[in-house]
Design goal:
With 519 residues, this protein is an alpha+beta fold. The chain is built from 14 helices and 22 strands. A 7-stranded mixed beta sheet has the order 10-11-12-3-13-20-14, sandwiched between helices. Strands 2-1-6-7-9-8 form a 6-stranded mixed beta sheet, covered by helices on one side.
């Protein structure tokens, strides 16, 4: 699954890739829009065994069309489910459950041909009807539907072929199918949606076995997996350990074989103590959502004061390490092809922040929400709040113990400012439109700009890369001026492993490549 999933949390990390056990190599030829791409990758040796993984929280649900906005969701989904399209780490967009994906000459429809020989873990065949069922269901989802609102019809042409008709051309459509909306769940399992929320059935290499509320989710090797590379261990237990220190302590004690973190300091400590730290390249960014419909954040002067009123470099150095001292000035990090450098870097300027608050002329009282569990993130936000308070604002940091409550609060808009993490799409439409377009599925800041909307509408349609680069460059500059969010840093999920296991990087927990080392 691609990392284009919105999640609550913190920042970046260090990479140390453990060695893989290579047995052989496989290649699958696929087509996208008439062009052929070949995916080649090593097959790893099955080592069996049962492993235990520490996650930062408990998923609200395991229904892909419901509230899936946590890191824990992505990690469990990576084991149980698969998407129509995929983006391998370091690779390009390519079909996974599809055999091919072809755009029509008028650009108003796509023909999707499903892969042969795939079955869901309950024995239900994966076919064109299953694709239609899932896409229709995602369209009806209050969480994900707005992100695919350009679809007008999804029709079964024959048992292997689906025709998706659009309101207008959509360049980012294939990339959208690599995100949560492209996850395929068994239609039979979804006959009872309440049961399905806690008993997921997909096509992935692991099948669900158990969910013990407040403690863990278990999955086991799916022997009927269609791919050449199935699960490499017998089972995975995903333990819910919200406290960062407790997760790392359990790893060192041998109670966990691997833990997920988004905190640089934890990763650096682990590396210094001899634990491998495995991570993909930056796949997301940390941000503060500013609810532009709630006073005082409905005033651009207050938002701009917040953006320049904290010492980015000093706080990053104190809490995240020198390697993240660069500020995030847009969804994409420096080095990404879609990154455009700011015309003016929003550097720390306490005097100007004070002047903006004085010009605003009213009391600035803001409650900043953050999930409990990551003390480094909490400490860094308290330092930011201290900067703002020194400039005449009144910003307090409030922790929310329950992750489901936290996500629901943000989605409902019942907040002023909230910490968040967004994943990045390989196509900029997926990163910009959903987050910043008026009515976008991830626009929890309730931001609206006609000028930005026009640019993002243009970017959706265009197939000219140079034109799209210009469009999204302009979009970045508008966002940097209007400040609907404060981007704090670019980051990724790190997996810290103990002595028993190794794995390749992935954007969530690497369920597909985790295996025992034999030691």
């Amino acid at each position: 699954m691609s990392p284009s999933q919105t999640t609550a949390g913190g920042s970046a990390g260090t990479t140390t890739l453990a060695s893989a056990v290579v047995a052989t190599t496989s290649a699958v030829a696929t087509t996208v829009g008439g062009t052929t791409a070949s995916t080649t990758g090593p097959l790893l040796k099955f080592t069996g065994g049962d492993i235990r993984v520490g996650l930062d929280g408990e998923p609200p649900t395991l229904d892909p069309a419901a509230n899936s906005l946590t890191l824990a969701n992505g990690s469990v989904y990576n084991a149980v489910f698969e998407t129509l399209m995929t983006v391998p780490v370091g690779g390009t967009l390519q079909p996974l459950l599809l055999q091919s994906l072809t755009e029509s000459a008028d650009r108003l429809s796509w023909m999707l041909v499903v892969r042969d020989g795939v079955k869901f873990q309950d024995g239900t065949p994966f076919d064109a009807a299953a694709v239609k069922f899932n896409l229709d269901r995602q369209q009806a989802s209050p969480y994900n539907g707005p992100s695919i609102n350009l679809i007008t019809n999804t029709d079964v042409v024959d048992p292997k072929t689906v025709k998706v008709t659009l309101k207008q051309p959509w360049t980012g459509f294939p990339a959208a199918l690599s995100t949560v909306v492209g996850i395929m769940a068994s239609p039979a399992s979804l006959a009872d949606t309440t049961k399905a929320a806690r008993n997921p059935v997909g096509t992935g290499p692991f099948q669900f076995t158990e969910w013990v509320s407040g403690d863990h989710i278990s999955v086991k090797k799916f022997d009927g997996y269609w791919g050449a590379q199935g699960a490499l261990v017998d089972s995975i237990v995903f333990k819910f350990v919200p406290d960062e220190t407790a997760r790392y302590t359990a790893l060192k004690a041998g109670d966990l074989d691997a833990i997920a973190t988004t905190t640089v300091t934890t990763s650096k400590q682990a590396a210094s103590e001899g634990y491998p730290v495995i991570s993909a390249p930056p796949s997301g960014y940390g941000l503060l959502l500013l609810n532009t419909t709630k006073a005082p954040l409905d005033d651009i002067r207050v938002r701009q004061a917040l953006n320049i009123g904290w010492d980015r470099d000093a706080i990053a150095k104190a809490f995240n390490g020198d390697d993240t001292a660069h500020a995030g000035f847009g969804p994409y990090p420096p080095g990404n092809k879609w990154y455009v450098a700011p015309t003016t870097v929003p550097s720390y300027d306490a005097a100007k922040a004070k002047a903006l608050i004085k010009e605003y002329g009213k009391a600035v009282k803001i409650k900043l929400l953050i999930p409990s569990g990551n003390q480094t993130t909490i400490d860094s936000l308290n330092s930011m709040a201290q900067n703002w308070n020194d400039e005449g604002m009144n910003v307090t940091v409030e922790q929310v113990p329950d992750l489901t409550t936290y996500v629901t609060t943000v989605i409902s808009g019942n907040y002023q400012m909230a910490g968040w993490i967004n994943g990045l799409s390989i196509d900029p439409d997926g990163s910009y439109f959903n987050q910043f377009h008026t009515g976008g599925s991830g626009n929890f800041e309730h931001y609206s700009s006609p000028a930005l909307d026009a640019l993002l509408d243009q970017g959706r349609i265009s197939t000219d890369e140079a034109q799209r680069m210009n469009v999204y460059g302009q979009a970045q500059q508008i966002l940097r001026n209007d400040v609907p969010v404060i981007i704090t840093a670019h980051g990724k999920i790190d997996i810290i492993v103990g002595k028993r296991v190794t794995m390749n990087p992935d954007y969530f927990f690497p369920a597909r490549t985790v295996h025992l080392t034999g030691s």
